[in-house]
């Protein structure tokens, strides 16, 4: 052994010894070892509307999720949400939503089929670790807005059989299942409709996760009362930090935790910090919302024009997005309120989600860095990124044996 190498190895020993004394944790290793799961994205819209090739690496904000960036971000599993906007509840509109959701499912199947070396469809809670162990990303399916179900209970099983593992019961307006947290007309059922109660029971029977994001407070409490398994919020944040009706109150978070559930913090600006209602960005978007009757579009052309105008507003009147530290404040709050076992992350990427320093899935290691900086242990971080959600998912699967 040379004298210089001996000096180097001695110095390395001292560095490692120092790190061991100071409790140093390598964020990169912690992120790599964790099961990283994002429980909500709207990427299937880009597959259907733009025919995006997910094998190619794209650039935010036009696209925030693709297969190369999933790998770069160390993402083990991700939920692709089948989003359909709420329209007047007429048979032709319900059928259109059903057709759109089915088209998204077909597009996802084609994309995954062409990229089997990178991704694989996942159906069960234990698929995430198995598929990740094969060096691929697990693609799970969720449905944002139960509108495609209409009032046909058989469609719940139909979507389950096609791989959908959670349903966000409604979106920004009331539907046939329940009241929304943001419908300008207010409550219609004061919670779940009678049909909505049937939907929850059927989801329990099948082993589907009930997603309480977007639903009204009264609907949330109805779900907790009726559901035979833990429930989760796929992409919601903390109302005490950001007073938005889409976020969850302290009491809701406590009740969710008491039932064994988990809130997946949504990294969309308006849910992380309260909007500046005096900014031109906010004023112009409010004008756009009113013009399109709270996003009640007459047709696809009108919808595409509205979202193109939305993007133009962002370009003309840019706003400073919140940062990772502000998002992690929501995680801290939940942990202090109900403990480490009831919080996770659902980005809402490709549906509005994004932070100033985390604009796509490739940036997820930065969130781990912030968690390490705040003193979270490796076990804690594993729970936040995927462990808590997988526990809930498994309990929902186990529920099927009790309710059949």
- Find the CATH topology of the largest domain: TIM Barrel
Calculate the mean pLDDT score and round it: 92
CATH class bucket of the largest domain: Alpha Beta
- The end-to-end distance, rounded to whole angstroms, is 69 Å
Order of helices and strands: HHEHHEHEHEHEHEHEHEHHHHEHH
Which consecutive residue ranges, at least 5 long each, have pLDDT under 50? 1-22
Oligomerization status of the protein chains: single chain
- What's the main sheet like? 6 strands, parallel
- Counting structural domains, the number is 2
Description:
With 404 residues, the chain is of the alpha/beta class. It folds into two domains: 329 residues, Alpha-Beta Barrel (TIM Barrel), CATH 3.20.20; 42 residues. 48% of the residues lie in helices and 10% in strands. The chain contains 16 helices and nine strands. Strands 1, 2, 3, 4, 5 and 6 form a six-stranded parallel beta sheet that branches. Helix 2 packs across helix 15. The longest helix has 26 residues. It starts with a helix and ends with a helix. The N terminus is likely disordered.
């Amino acid at each position: 052994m040379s004298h210089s190498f001996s000096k180097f190895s001695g110095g390395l020993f001292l560095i490692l010894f120092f790190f061991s004394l100071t409790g140093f944790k390598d964020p990169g290793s912690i992120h790599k070892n964790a099961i990283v799961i994002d429980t909500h994205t709207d990427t299937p819209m880009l597959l259907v509307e733009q025919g995006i090739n997910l094998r190619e690496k794209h650039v935010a904000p036009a696209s925030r999720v693709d297969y190369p960036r999933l790998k770069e971000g160390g993402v083990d599993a991700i939920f692709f949400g089948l989003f359909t906007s709420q329209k007047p509840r007429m048979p032709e509109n319900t059928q259109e939503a059903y057709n759109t959701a089915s088209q998204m499912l077909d597009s996802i199947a084609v994309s995954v089929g062409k990229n089997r070396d990178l991704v694989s469809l996942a159906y069960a809670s234990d698929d995430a670790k198995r598929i990740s162990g094969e060096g691929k990303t697990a693609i799970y399916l969720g449905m944002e807005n139960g509108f495609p179900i209409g009032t046909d209970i058989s469609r719940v099983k139909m979507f389950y059989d096609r791989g959908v593992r959670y349903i966000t019961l409604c979106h920004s307006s009331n539907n046939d299942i329940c009241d929304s947290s943001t419908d300008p007309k207010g409550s219609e059922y004061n919670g779940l409709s009678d049909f909505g109660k049937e939907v929850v029971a059927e989801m329990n029977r099948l082993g589907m996760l009930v997603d309480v994001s977007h639903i009204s407070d009264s609907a949330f409490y109805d779900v907790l009362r009726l559901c035979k398994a833990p429930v989760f919020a796929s992409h919601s944040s903390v109302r005490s930090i950001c007073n938005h009706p889409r976020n969850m109150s302290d009491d809701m978070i406590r009740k969710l935790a008491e039932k064994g559930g988990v809130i997946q913090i949504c990294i969309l600006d308006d849910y992380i910090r309260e909007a500046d209602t005096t900014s031109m960005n906010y004023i112009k978007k409010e004008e756009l919302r009113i013009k399109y009757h709270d996003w009640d579009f007459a047709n696809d052309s009108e919808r595409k024009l509205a979202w193109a105008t939305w993007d133009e507003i962002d370009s003309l009147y840019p706003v400073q997005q919140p940062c990772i530290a502000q998002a992690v404040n929501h995680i801290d709050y939940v942990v202090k309120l109900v403990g480490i076992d009831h919080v996770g992350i659902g980005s809402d990427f490709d549906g509005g989600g994004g932070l100033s320093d985390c604009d796509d899935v490739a940036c997820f290691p930065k969130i781990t860095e912030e968690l390490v900086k705040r003193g979270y242990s490796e076990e804690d971080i594993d729970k936040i990124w995927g462990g808590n959600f997988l526990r809930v998912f498994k309990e929902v699967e186990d529920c099927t044996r009790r309710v059949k």
